[in-house]
Design a protein that fits this description.
It comes from Zestomonas insulae. By secondary structure, the protein is α+β, with helices and mostly antiparallel strands. It has 9 helices and 22 strands.
Length: about 500
């Protein structure tokens, strides 16, 4: 006979129950045990004494997995100090929160705020504080011109897709925080609800190298804008981005601005975790690091030990990830790639590797990235040697948007050269193909000769460098891995 009472024993064989040395649990007992387990704190008790060794362990781990979030947090803080929309040193966009600033041309080579920029698009940037106000994101009519807005959270994961490849229509897009309950005004094309109140918006608009296109793009980008909901009136607000105030330039070194510092990291991390709530499965990780930070706030020696461990982790774990050859999905001819850009989730290794080497990448359907530090024989790329990259006939990167190959120095910035040329690809209308229809790009410090100069990508003289191939709006052959770049060969 079927019995339904909750206190009836579970169907364990009596012999097994006896062997376990315990009475067979009832349904009620099982439910009570589960409730007790759920109530247990996910980390150490707030009053638990934390040993230095344990604090160092947690500090080292947190430095690695939270490094990208603290990086974005400090960029966000820098924007919060902006008095108005303008340009730092005339080269970098800066805007107060819930605003955006566009460049009006390619990003300049002397900037050091962000590694691995490209000179194929006109960039914009803005940081959102959606707890202060919902924000309207304007999308003008780009016509047939390629465009994409990166819209990402503090983790550098994509929030939603806005761009040519998504079929996004011109209009007004309203970004709201997770708790917003206001009224949506008439004329809003779509409401985008974020998982947290901190977000980044970074438009990228294709521009080719001709004077005609550099002029034509101005009309389009003037319609790109971001502003608080209170200013929305249903009309397209236009700004001539060529007429912006210039703010003083920072004193930057050869490498990227240091956005993450061990001496401030653990003071900032609790606020960062508040802005980037734990994902499923991260609750214990968050609680653990919060408990250790709380203990360190009461114990200067413990805090100093954590800072010391963070400095070691930076040298030993994070810094090596600047070099592409140390991470990524291996491909033929020593190229590497990523398959989860802007969709990192809990892949902490790839997220931090990308953040250290080329932060703020697009999602794979928007842009596919290929990285290279080595030649076809596996030797480090260096300007003392001349190289060629040859795409067979019909085998240039298959894209619906555009592609480009860029040279970066060892710190992942542009290489000064007399042509002021830093990349080659779709934007270059004078590339010459070979007699058999193939396309050869010459990567070297000195000119390959007047007849080949249109295909010359200048490299640093007698110094290490890297190559970076971008495929914007990639075709399925790239997305599915059927197309990969050719070898970087030493010139004969």
């Amino acid at each position: 006979m079927l019995r339904t009472s909750k206190t009836i024993a579970l169907a364990l064989p009596l012999g097994l129950a006896a062997l376990l040395g315990t009475a067979t649990p009832t349904f009620a007992q099982t439910e009570t045990t589960a409730a007790q387990a759920t109530a247990l704190p996910p980390g150490p008790d707030a009053n638990t004494r934390i040993t230095e060794s344990y604090a160092r362990l947690v500090a080292r781990d947190a430095w690695f997995w939270a490094w990208p979030m603290v990086n974005m947090y400090n960029r966000r803080l820098a924007y919060a100090k902006a008095p108005e929309q303008g340009l730092i040193g005339g080269t970098l966009p800066l805007a107060p929160h819930n605003r955006l600033t566009m460049l009006s041309d390619y990003i300049q080579p002397e900037q050091r705020s962000i590694a691995c920029p490209n000179q194929d698009v006109v960039y914009g940037a803005g940081y959102l504080a959606l707890d202060v106000s919902p924000v309207v994101i304007q999308v003008p009519d780009f016509g047939k011109r390629f465009w994409v807005y990166q819209f990402s959270d503090l983790r550098t994961d994509s929030i939603t897709g806005l761009g040519s490849m998504h079929g996004t229509q011109p209009g007004f897009y309203l970004a709201v925080g997770p708790d917003w309950q206001g009224e949506v005004p008439k004329g809003i094309t779509q409401v985008i609800r974020t998982h947290s109140n901190a977000a980044f918006v970074g438009p990228r608009v294709f521009q080719d190298d001709t004077p005609e296109d550099k002029k034509a793009v101005q009309e389009v980008i003037q319609g790109i804008n971001v502003y608080p909901l209170a200013e929305y009136d249903g009309t397209l607000k236009r700004i001539d981005w060529r007429k912006l105030p210039i703010f003083p330039k920072r004193a930057d070194g050869a490498g990227e601005t240091r956005w993450v510092r061990p001496d401030a990291f653990f003071d900032q991390l609790p606020a960062v975790l508040d802005l980037a709530p734990a994902q499923a499965g991260e609750e214990a990780r968050y609680a653990q690091v919060r408990a250790v930070i709380a203990a360190a706030q009461k114990d200067p020696a413990l805090k100093q030990a954590m800072i010391d461990e963070a400095e070691k982790a930076d040298r030993e774990l994070v810094d090596p990830l600047l070099q592409f050859r140390n991470w990524g999905v291996p491909l033929p001819h020593h190229w590497t790639t990523i398959n989860n850009g802007a969709r990192f989730g809990t892949d902490y290794f790839t997220r931090t590797a990308v953040a250290r080497s080329n932060i703020l990448v697009n999602a794979p359907s928007e842009t596919k990235y290929f990285y290279q530090d080595l030649d076809g024989a596996g030797a480090r790329l260096n300007g003392a040697q001349a190289y060629t990259v040859t795409f067979a006939k019909g085998q240039v990167p298959p894209v619906k948007g555009f592609w480009s190959l860029t040279v970066y120095d060892a710190a992942h910035f542009f290489v000064p050269n007399p042509l002021k040329r830093y990349s080659l690809g779709t934007k270059n209308k004078d590339l010459k193909t070979n007699a058999d229809g193939s396309l050869t790009l010459y990567v070297q410090a000195e000119s390959p000769g007047a007849d080949k100069q249109s295909n010359w990508l200048p490299a640093p003289k007698d110094a290490d460098f890297s190559l970076f191939l971008r495929a914007y709006w990639p075709e399925e052959a790239i997305v599915q891995g059927r197309w990969t770049p050719p070898a970087v060969e030493t010139a004969q």
